[in-house]
Each structure stands twice: as structure tokens, then as C-alpha cells.
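Renewal narrative, Specific Aim 1. Our central claim is that a sequence can be written position by position from structural information alone. The example that follows is taken directly from our test logs and has not been curated for this report. It begins with the C-alpha cells describing the chain, in the order in which they were read.
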């Protein structure tokens, strides 16, 4: 994640609470007005692993309203 991405985003999802704390600490001045959500998913999956993708879809959907 970068400052440019934080500025661009309306909502930021992280997988673990440690990620949440790191984003808050590093980008505190850029987070005003942003929604930051922790999905409580252990970061022990391979990239694009089907089980991870399914879990992300379920957890992210809870935070989105269409």
C-alpha cells in the first residue's frame, strides 16, 4: 500500500488486525474520511487461492451496500 493508493481509496480492507494497526500508524494523516475495515483473515493463503477468494468475497460483501 502507498500513500497515493490511500488518498485514492474511499474504503481500505486489510486482512489482519496487525495490518490495520500498520496502516493506521503509517497513514494516519491520510485516513480522514476513509473507511478502514479488517476482514479478520489470517494471512497464510497463497495469492488467488480459491479458498481465499471465496472468503474475501463473503467478508467484503458484509461491508458493501449496493
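The sequence written for that structure reads:
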Amino acid at each position: 500500500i502507498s500513500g497515493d493508493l490511500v488518498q485514492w481509496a474511499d474504503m481500505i480492507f486489510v486482512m489482519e488486525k496487525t495490518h490495520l494497526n500498520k496502516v493506521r500508524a503509517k497513514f494516519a494523516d491520510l485516513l480522514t474520511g476513509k473507511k478502514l475495515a479488517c476482514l479478520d483473515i489470517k494471512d497464510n493463503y497463497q495469492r488467488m487461492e480459491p479458498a481465499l477468494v471465496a472468503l474475501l468475497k463473503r467478508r467484503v460483501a458484509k461491508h458493501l451496500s449496493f
